[in-house]
Amino acid sequence: MSEMLQKINAVIEKESQFVEGLTHEIGKVIVGQERVVERLLISLLTGGHVLLEGVPGLAKTLAIKTLAETVAVSFQRIQFTPDLLPADLIGTMIYNQAKGEFTPKKGPIFANFILADEINRAPAKVQSALLEAMQEHQVTIGDQSYQLPPPFLVLATQNPIDQEGTYPLPEAQIDRFMMKLKVGYPNREEEKLIVERMTSGTAPTVQKVIDPAAIQQAKNAVSQIYLDDKIKEYVLDIVFATRNPEDHNLKDLSKLIEFGASPRASIALIQAAKAHAFIKRRGYVVPEDIKAIGPDVLRHRLIPTFEAEAEEMDSDAILDRIFSEIEVP
Asked: Which of 166, 219, 238, 281 has the fewest CB atoms within 10 Å, measured from its CB?
């Protein structure tokens, strides 16, 4: 076992060398938000889509755009609005007079990184078109399906305070996002640095650090990271506690949870924990990886009851209880 771990550690040490350079480049533009940047990197290493929620002006869009600039991939920003149509997203069939036939005109979704800005402003038809792309990595135009170029990531933003003219994302679509990140305000020192950078007259620029081939190599390395059976059981205990809290000495949470996390949550939690270990340059997953990434993977998959809302217990508060109660291996 120790020999196997040594081999895995050697692979991770080699393949994770780009992490420091990539975070350094992003840090030239983004002040603070280390946790958000780390989670975006995890999404890159796992191919999991990310939903960022925060009030306007917290550099959600800038963080995603900067990540795309440090990776040698194509990038498209799509501003979601109530009048957006599925064809504006995936493309449509155009009649070619010269050939006398319809030919596909591909939409902006045919890129590696898609920034879906203010995703909850688009109506259901657009969201369902995006859903196929996120889950199947393909889109259908007319009677033909087209594969999307790998790596394919949807990085979406939504504003939690302005609900007028918005279409809340259905639970089925929210579940397709590997993580939901809550972006908070910077502290005073960070905001001072932001002001100095953004008012200096010269915008900071970043260099490309990694290409798609290197990303695929890193993904292969992430999949090799060792996961002990005890860690798997720990993940299952956490996920099952969101469904049947009474079985885990959390009977008081039963009335606060409408729906628990799906099996997709267990898969996402293990994948994200492996990527977290990769970033920390470890060839094995430890319980701290699960604890660090767990709230971001589970918060949008746990649906509180009306009673929980009345008691001002949101999904984060419920998850805090679960993580504090479930025994760590």
From this structure: 281
